Amino acid sequence: MNISFADTKLYEIFVVKNGYIKEEYDNYIKINFQKKGRRNRVLEWIFLLRLNLAYKILNRKKDGYEAKSGGESSRSFCNIDAFAFERIKPHQLAMQLLNYEVISFDIFDTLLLRPFKKPSDLFHIIGKRLNFEGFAFSFYRVRTEIEKELRDEKYRRIGSREITIYDIYHEIERRTNIAYEEGLNEEIQAEMDYCFANPYMLQVFKILKNQGKRIIATSDMYLPREIMIKLLSGCGYEGFDRIYVSCDYECSKNSNGRNLFHIVKSDYADKSICHVGDNMISDIDRAQKEGLYTAYYKNVHQVSETLNNVRMAEVLKGSYLGLIECKLYNGVKNHSFFYQYGYAYGGIYVLGYMKWIDRFVRDKKIDKLLFVARDGYVYKKVYDKICGSVESAYLYWSRVALMKYCVADRNFEDFFERVVKIKAANSAESVSIGYFLRIFEIDNINLVKFNLDERQELNDSVLKNLKQCLLYYWDQIQQTYEAGKKAFCKLLLAEIGSAETIGIVDASSNGYGLMNLKYLIESLTDNAVRVNVFMADRVYANNRGFVYDESVHCYLFSETVNNDCYTSMYGRHNSDGAANLAFEFLTQAPHARFAGIDKKEKFLFDPPENENYEATGEISTGIVDFCNDFTQTFRKDRYIFENISGSEAFRPFEIIARNKAVLRKYFKDIVVEKNIVGGNAKGRKETYADIIK
Questions:
Q1: Tens-place pLDDT, residues 436-450
Q2: Options 3.30.460, 3.40.50, 1.20.120, 3.30.70; CATH of 345-396+500-676
Q3: From CA 361, how far away is CA 367, in angstroms rounded?
């Protein structure tokens, strides 16, 4: 390698930052020029530019780990779509490592994981526990600045930057009101609370131990060996031959001259050693320079940059990103896109929504929650598991049931406007008059009398005559629904039971369906039951009176709540409906749409949309898993998830919603029922890709 080039910023940009590029570049130089003794700079740069084009622009992929001898680079996973990210299986890596007599592991981000985007995110929690967060200087700032100053000062004195946690808290005590023992113990306890075994590396470690391999740990850290042993042991790592920590040896992996790898090599001079770590420079390049073999494990927090700029409060952001990265990208399991979609983009929203509702439950003394189908399916699962302050029930409800049991009972004009005219105006969703009438169980009326034929397309040209026809038979139509309505009302009253104050919960809505359900409940109980309506978001096609109704509560956004989120969701860039549909997919239940109740009190459902059930099931599982993982992980610091704002909960989805390429790629084959009002007959279906194109 030419030193003048290797020492430049260009070398770092074009070579070092991508392990694949460095590997191929070094091999190219070795093969083509080392034997000749002369370098062709033109050919060298052409080759290098081609590599950067392939790996950074065209996203060429190389998967897996490869242990390599000193002087060669390990493979990386740079520039891979996060949803397609894969590692080799733990036992495969273990099999590679069995070729060596001594295996060295980096500790943090390799053996141990923290559920934080950055290690320093933990300082926010420590500051809260120490009751130091109300000062002008936050504990986070104090802790990071003091550590830096101590390292710089020590380097000026003796040429080493290695300090201990004891040094840090002696200085913190000198400058603040935090006692040495109190601060020290709180940070150690926080590390114990939040460090957990990387499930991937724990499997590798156990295989190697069972094979009798000598295992050591090598780490740059201010926590001395005795604390490291406690952390590792508490996470299931036992039986290390030696543990090397930089603060104990007054040198790091990166130190010039004497460094940790130099010491390791000296202690095991007659042994073959392979070091496993997550940092391409300190764990790979430096180890190789000392003659060690290496195996690169890409840091879980570097796999995807999709959500790095998500807008959240700092503590929530660090915890949210850290957890999903530790979960999704550790390599134990290659999760499907739909599971990841639910876990990363739906989980935070559903968790925040349910905790938000639970505060209303306590404040307004709500006796029972009715989760409305089909979005309520996932909501109920999370609420019962995470919150569970009151009894809940899952209520079958739909637009068809709404029209049959609420609207048709009292408002012909609304029925005609919301059912017939909407259908006729939307040419993309055109159906025959006959099909429409069968959906609503009113196909026994005489169309000929009004110059209509069931084969005619439902469009603007037939509206006048069809309106006259439906109005003529309106009493008959109402009677058709009477038995079903009585059965539904009986069920509804049974679900309400003795509750005096209830909450009905749904996802995205214009509010029309829920407000009619609210009206129905109040009518059935002579206003004896108080009804609160909870919606994730509200879309107002028209300015209706319930916009400012104090019994209606919106979590994410509406025209009056988090309006910037509302604009982002329904603004110009989402006019094709891509974001709307993607949002609906988050909380779709894996069952068919409710169509009503027949005379025998039997539930009626639309034909099952079998095409989507596997995907929606995986999304739901991802959401529930995230909610459970997040609450369990941060249970000792509950404030992190107790008050997630609607705006924060929406931001991750906002990012994925704007990535139309990803949505089209993964949702393209999802089938959507084109019939806006549902029905029992065979409806027109199209794929997501067809609708948004």
A1: 788 777 888 889 999
A2: 3.40.50
A3: 8
